[in-house]
C-alpha cells in the first residue's frame, strides 16, 4: 500500500495542472481507499461521508462515489483486486472508443479506483426514451432511414392508420433503439426479432457499404470485447458533455479473468 501511495503522489506530481483543475477531493481518494481496505466495515457510508463523498451506486463488483464538491465526476472503486480489471478494461475501452464511453480522467496505479466523467443514464421514463432515440438518430441517421422505411412498410402491410391510438405515428421513433440492437445482432450473425425484421438485407448492405461511423464503432466494440447486448439498455446509456451517446457500464467478460 505504501508503494501505491508513493506511485500515486508521483502520478499527481506529473499532472499538477490537471489536479488543480479537479480540486482537493482528488488528493483524498488514496487515503480514503486505504482506510476502507483496512476497515471493510458495514459503516462504509460513514467513511465516504467523512472524506467528502456520497455513494450513488453499488454493484456486485464496484462501488460508485460522487465528490460533494463537484458533480461532474464519479469515482469507481473495485471491491477486490480481481475486479479492478473492470476499471482497467473501462479505461482501455475509453481510449480505444472515445465516443462510446465516458472519459476516464485518473486511475490508481493498480486500477483499484478510477475517476470518470459523470453521465446520467437516460432511463426508462418518457423523456429518457425520447432522449435516447433522438440522440441515436443523430448518431446514426442512415440506419434511422432504414428503420423508418421498415416501419412504413409494416404499417402499410397491416393497414395501420396514422391516427391509430395503439401505434401513434408521432411515437414511431421510440422503437429505434431496439432496432439498433437488432441491427447489431444482424451484422454479427445472431437471431433477431421485432416488427421490422424484414430489413435484415438492407442492414447487411448498409453495414458493408455506408455504415454510420457511430454504428460501425459500436459494432466493433461489441464484437471485439464480448460486450453483452443486454447491457445496452436505456438505464445503461447516457449523453455526455459532448452530446455523445455513451455506454455507462459494460459487462466485459475478458477483463474479469
Strand percentage: 5-15%
Report the major sheet.
5 strands, antiparallel
Rg, rounded, reads: 21 Å
Structural class: alpha+beta
Description:
By secondary structure, the protein is an alpha+beta fold. The chain is built from ten helices and seven strands. The longest helix has 17 residues, at about 140-155. It starts with a helix and ends in a 10-residue tail after the last strand.
Features:
alpha+beta; Phosphorylase Kinase, domain 1; five-stranded antiparallel β-sheet; two-stranded antiparallel sheet; 10 helices
Please give the structural blueprint.
Elements: H1 2-13, H2 16-22, H3 25-39, H4 44-50, E1 53-58, E2 62-67, E3 73-78, H5 84-96, E4 104-107, E5 113-117, H6 126-139, H7 141-157, H8 176-187, H9 200-209, H10 213-225, E6 237-239, E7 245-247
Antiparallel strand pairs: 1-2, 2-3, 3-5, 4-5, 6-7
Amino acid at each position: 500500500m505504501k508503494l501505491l501511495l508513493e506511485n500515486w503522489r508521483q502520478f499527481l506530481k506529473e499532472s499538477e495542472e490537471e489536479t488543480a483543475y479537479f480540486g482537493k477531493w482528488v488528493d483524498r481518494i488514496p487515503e480514503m481507499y486505504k482506510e476502507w481496505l483496512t476497515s471493510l466495515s458495514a459503516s462504509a457510508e460513514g467513511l465516504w461521508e467523512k472524506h467528502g463523498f456520497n455513494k450513488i451506486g453499488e454493484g456486485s463488483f464496484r462501488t460508485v462515489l460522487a465528490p460533494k464538491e463537484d458533480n461532474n465526476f464519479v469515482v469507481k472503486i473495485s471491491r477486490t483486486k480481481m475486479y479492478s480489471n473492470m476499471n482497467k478494461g473501462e479505461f482501455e475501452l475509453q481510449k480505444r472508443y472515445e465516443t462510446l464511453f465516458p472519459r476516464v480522467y485518473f486511475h490508481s496505479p493498480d486500477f483499484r479506483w478510477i475517476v470518470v466523467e459523470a453521465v446520467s443514464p437516460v432511463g426508462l421514463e418518457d423523456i429518457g426514451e425520447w432522449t435516447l432515440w433522438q440522440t441515436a438518430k443523430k448518431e446514426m441517421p442512415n440506419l434511422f432511414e432504414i428503420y423508418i422505411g421498415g416501419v412504413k412498410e409494416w404499417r402499410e402491410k397491416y393497414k395501420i392508420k396514422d391516427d391509430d391510438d395503439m401505434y401513434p405515428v408521432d411515437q414511431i421513433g421510440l422503437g429505434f433503439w431496439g432496432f439498433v440492437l437488432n441491427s447489431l445482432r444482424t451484422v454479427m450473425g445472431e437471431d433477431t426479432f421485432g416488427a421490422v425484421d424484414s430489413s435484415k438485407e438492407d442492414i447487411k448492405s448498409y453495414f458493408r457499404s455506408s455504415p454510420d461511423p457511430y454504428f460501425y464503432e459500436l459494432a466493433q466494440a461489441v464484437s471485439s470485447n464480448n460486450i453483452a447486448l443486454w447491457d445496452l439498455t436505456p438505464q445503461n446509456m447516457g449523453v455526455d458533455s459532448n452530446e455523445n451517446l455513451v455506454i455507462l457500464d459494460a459487462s466485459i467478460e475478458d477483463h474479469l479473468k
